[in-house]
Design a protein that fits this description.
InterPro entries: Homeodomain-like_sf, HTH_RpiR, RpiR-like, RpiR-like_SIS, SIS_dom, SIS_dom_sf, WH-like_DNA-bd_sf. Pfam families: HTH_6, SIS. Keywords: DNA-binding, Glycolysis, Transcription, Transcription regulation. This protein is of the alpha/beta class and 320 residues long. The protein contains 16 helices and five strands. A five-stranded parallel β-sheet has the order 2-1-3-4-5, with helices on both faces. Strand 3, helix 12 and strand 4 form a beta-alpha-beta unit. The termini are far apart.
Length: 320
C-alpha cells in the first residue's frame, strides 16, 4: 500500500480483507483516533481484548512494518497535543522519589526562567510597558491554565492603570467576546496562550485586531499562533516534564512585566501607599485592623432578628 495514506484511508481500503479480530481493532481505532495514538501496543491490545501478536499483525495488515510505524502514523497531526503525554510517560518509566521529583521540577523552573531572561527582547519590553500605560482600558484574556494567570496579571496591573479587566471569567469565551465588543483603538488586549493553545484565545485576538485594538501577546515563541496577530510579543520558555507547561515561568514573566509597569508609572509609591492604607482593615496584624473590626457592627443572625422584631411589635401594641 502506498505510503502517505491516512489511517482512516488505509483501514477503508483494507477492511474487506481483515479478519473479524482485525476488523474489531479497526473499528476501535476509527472511533478513538486520539486515544489509540496514546497507547502502547500492550495497552491497545488490552483495550480491544486481543493478544500483542494480533495487534502487530493488524498493523501489518494495514501495510505497516509493525505497530511502532502504525502508531507513528496515528500520532501525526497530534504531535503538539500529545507531547506532554509522551513526556509524562517517559518520566514515569524512570523510578524517582518524591524529593527527586520536587528537585527536578524546581530545576526545570529555574532553567526556564534563565532561558527566558537571556532571550528577552528589550525593545518589546519597552513597547509593552508603554502600551499598557497609554491604554485607556486594558483587557486580559486567557483560557485553561492561562485564565488563572490572566487574573494574576490583572491583579498586578490594576494599581497603575486606568482600568484593567480580565475577560477570562465564568461566562467563558462568549462572555469574553461580549466584553471585547466594546474594544476601541485606544484600548489594549493582552492575550496569554501556551501549548496546547486554546482556540478561543486565538479567535479573540483576531476579533480584537479587526476592531482596531492593540494586541500584546504573552506566549512561547514566534511559532505560536498568537505571534502573527500581536503588535507586541513577550516570549517565555515554559517546558515541563510532567505537564503541558511550566506556569511558574509564565508567572515570572507576568511579575517582570508588572514590575516594569510599576517602575514607569506616574507616582507609583503614592499609589502603593494609598492602596495599602485603604487595605489596612483587611491586613492581619496591623494596628488599624483590629480596631476597624471591633468598630464594625456585629451581624445579627436571622432568627435573632425575627425575635427582636416580634418583641418590638409586642411592645408597641402594649403602649398603644
Amino acid at each position: 500500500m502506498p505510503i502517505g495514506h491516512s489511517i482512516s484511508d488505509r483501514i477503508a481500503r483494507s477492511l474487506p480483507a481483515l479478519t473479524p479480530a482485525h476488523r474489531r481493532m479497526a473499528e476501535y481505532v476509527l472511533a478513538n483516533l486520539f486515544r489509540a495514538a496514546t497507547m502502547r501496543i500492550d495497552e491497545f491490545a488490552a483495550a480491544v481484548e486481543v493478544s500483542v501478536a494480533t495487534a502487530n499483525r493488524f498493523a501489518r495488515a494495514l501495510g505497516f512494518d509493525g505497530y511502532p510505524q502504525f502508531r507513528a502514523e496515528l500520532v501525526r497531526g497530534f504531535e503538539a497535543t500529545l507531547a506532554p503525554v509522551e513526556r509524562l510517560r517517559s518520566e514515569l518509566e524512570r523510578p524517582a522519589t518524591a524529593a527527586e521529583v520536587f528537585a527536578a521540577s524546581l530545576e526545570d523552573a529555574a532553567a526556564n526562567a534563565e532561558a527566558t531572561r537571556r532571550n528577552i527582547d528589550p525593545t518589546a519590553c519597552e513597547r509593552a510597558v508603554a502600551a499598557i500605560l497609554a491604554a485607556q482600558r486594558v483587557y486580559v484574556a486567557g483560557f485553561g491554565a492561562s485564565g488563572f494567570l490572566a487574573g494574576l496579571l490583572q491583579h498586578g496591573l490594576e494599581m497603575h492603570c486606568r482600568m484593567v479587566t480580565s475577560v477570562a471569567g465564568a461566562g467563558g469565551a462568549s462572555h469574553a467576546a461580549r466584553q471585547l465588543f466594546k474594544l476601541q483603538p485606544s484600548d489594549l488586549l493582552i492575550v496569554i496562550a501556551f501549548p496546547r493553545y486554546v482556540t478561543d484565545t486565538i479567535e479573540l485576538a483576531q476579533r480584537a485586531k479587526l476592531r482596531g485594538g492593540q494586541v500584546l501577546a504573552l506566549t512561547d515563541g514566534p511559532t505560536s499562533p498568537l505571534a502573527p496577530l500581536a503588535d507586541i510579543a513577550l516570549y517565555a520558555q515554559a517546558g515541563n516534564r510532567l505537564s503541558a507547561n511550566s506556569d511558574a515561568t509564565v508567572l515570572a514573566l507576568i511579575e517582570a512585566l508588572c514590575g516594569a509597569v510599576a517602575h514607569r508609572a506616574e507616582r507609583p509609591v503614592k499609589a502603593a501607599a494609598e492602596m495599602t492604607e485603604f487595605l489596612l482593615p483587611w491586613l492581619h496584624g496591623t494596628p488599624e485592623a483590629e480596631p476597624a473590626r471591633r468598630s464594625a457592627p456585629m451581624p445579627v443572625p436571622p432568627t435573632e432578628a425575627k425575635t427582636g422584631a416580634r418583641r418590638a411589635r409586642s411592645s408597641n401594641t402594649r403602649k398603644s
